Amino acid sequence: MGRLREEPTREEVLNFVAESASYGNLGLFIGAGFSKAVLNADDKIALSWGELLKKAAKKMRVDYKSIANAGASYPEIASAICTTHSARTGETFEASSRQLKSEIARLTPWYPSPEQRSEYSEYLAAFSPSWVITTNYDLVIEALLTGRSISLGPDDPLSAPKGFVPVFHLHGVRTRPNEIIISQEDYITLFRPSEYRQIKLALTIKESTTLFLGYGLGDVNVLTALDWSRHVFKSGHGEYPSDVVQVVYDRKPRNSPYKDRNDIVIVETADLSVFFEEFADARAVREKIEGKKRRTVRNLAMELSSAESSMISRFIDDTAYRAKVLNRVAKFSIYVVADFISFLDKCVAETWRRSNPRGAFGGYNENLNIILDTLTAFDLDRFPPALFQTAAQSLQRVARFVGGDLGQSYSAKRTWEKRKGELSTKTVSELSNVAKQYGYGELRSLLKSAHK
Known about the structure:
- With about 450 residues, the protein is an alpha/beta fold.
- It folds into three domains: about 10-40 and about 110-285, 3-Layer(aba) Sandwich (Rossmann fold); about 50-105; about 305-445.
- About 55% of the residues lie in helices and about 10% in strands.
- The chain is built from 20 helices and eight strands.
- The protein has an eight-stranded mixed β-sheet with strand order 3-4-2-1-5-6-8-7.
- Helix 7 (about 115-125) crosses helix 12 (about 270-305).
- It is elongated.
C-alpha cells in the first residue's frame, strides 16, 4: 500500500482511494466548492467565501469595494470589515466581529433538496469516509449524511461515537456563531504552540488517505498541517494507504493526474459529479474483490473450526496441503488465527495419539514438522502472539523426544538438524526468551544447536 507512485494513472488513483475506503482510513477534506456543486445546479444558493464577506459587509453597511484591496486575503478583508464597522458605529472591534459572525450564520442556511440529497448521499456513502474535515460553515454535509454523522466545531475534539462520521468544521459551524473563525485575529489563535487543532489536523492527514473536494488549498493553517504531516511527523507509512489527493475543477480537464509543488496528486474534472461517478465505478469493483475476500476468510474459518479427522490427517501427512493451509492462514491471520490455533491443537493432539503405541516414534517427527512449518510461515513481526506461544509450548513438549538417546526419535533428530536453519535469528531469539521466561528447559537445550 503506502503511497501512490510518482506518476500514477487516473485508474490507479481511483483504485487507491477505493482501497483506502475499504481499509477504513479515507478522509474527506471538503471546501466551499463542494456545497456549490451540490446546491447550485438549479439555483445559485451556495456562496464562496468572498461572496459571503461581500453580502455580510452590505448587511453591516460597510463598503466592500473600498476595503477589498487586490492581494488581500479573506481573513484580512474580514478584519477590515470589522475595523470599518467599529469606527462607524463606535462599537468595539470584538462587538463588530460578533456581528459579522452572526451575519455569516444568517447567510448560510443551505440545505440540499430531496433530489440533491438522494444523489449526493449515495456519492458520499460510496466513499465510506472515516472522517470529514470542512472549512464550510454550512451543514450541507450533515444533511447528506443524515443519521450517520455528528457535527463538530473548532473547539471540539475530532472524535465521534462508533458508527458515526465526525464532521469537523475547522473554521466553525453556523449553529455556533461565536466559534466562527473568519478574521485575521481569529486565525492567530490557530497557531498557538501545541494548539490541538493544528496538531490533530497534521496527524489525521498523516494517518489517512486525504481526498480534497471543492477546496483550493489556500488556507495557511491547512498548508502548515500538510507540511507537518510530511516533514515534522516523518515516521514511515507502514502497510496502510496514506497519501493526499486533490480533485480540481477545470473546464478542459486533463485525463492524467499529476503532482503539484506540495507533492499532492491532482485529479482534474469538469464536474464533481463526474468524478464521483468515476469513483463509484472503482469502488464497486473494489467491493467485489473485498466480497470475494470476505467469503474466502469465512470459508477458511468454518473449515478450520469444524475440521473433521480427514482434514486433520491430511494436514499432518500431506506437506504440500499443509503449506497451502498455512499460506492461507498467514494471508488472513488477523481474521482466522483463533480458529487456526484450535485446529493446530487438534493436529498436534493427533500426532501425540499416533505416538502412544510402543515404538511409534514417527509421530514425534510429524509433530516437529508441523510446529516448524508453523514457525516458518510467519515473519516474527507479524506473528500472532497467541499462536507463537502455542507453537513454543508445543516445541517445548516435543523437544524431549528429539535426539538419539533411548526413547527419543531419530527421525525427529534428523528433521531438526536438517530444518533448524530455516528458523530466522529473530524467531530463535524470541523462542529463547519464551523458554527462559517460562522455564522451558528442553526447548532451551534444543535451541542451543540452532544457528551454530
